[in-house]
Design brief:
Length: 221
Amino acid sequence: MFSTLFVFEIVAVFTVRTLCCRVDEYITRDGQCCPMCHEGTVVRRDCTLQSGTRCVPCERGTFMNQANGLNKCFTCTSCDPAHGLSALQTCTAVNNTVCEVINGHFCKSLTDTGCSLAEKHTHCIPGQGIKEPGTSRNDTVCEDCQPGYFSPDGVNCTAWTICSETQVQVKEGSQTIDIVCGAPGALSASRHHYLLIPPFLLFFSLVCLMSKHKCLFCISA
């Protein structure tokens, strides 16, 4: 019974102290109500019976965007170009930095104060084309080239070349390379392969041949 009353008294005291502070006041560590500091400032010294709250401006690189009873300003967000971000709005004493994505990137995490996380646009691989170009809000969408089309650089799918009536197809096309056309003789020539024998190898072969068939070079007695 005693413990229940004790807990009730603590809750009651805390509630009374909370309710005694107005909307524009904050509670100090010793339970006193003091006027809040304005935006761009924080508390340096709590109020007393003789003086009000003493506030100090936020230092450079920090901000405070609300009335408060805090003793430390918030750190300004850094827009790092290495992570695909640049500053759209610089940080002030009352507002945080607003970041935006740089070209070639898209935002993966968008907040009320700008982009907090960016990523590079996807580069389509050879054999693919760009279905939807990347924007500041969305990544690039890639798609495979259809049969009869090719893309060597992963940008656009282009239709294979159609050989003319006076040409023949010398090389087949694929998703990454075009068809190669040429004169009818080019196809025949491409099918013939010639073996080039170095001079020293040819000489060595002749010597071996002569040693195996000495009778051809001997004079009968």
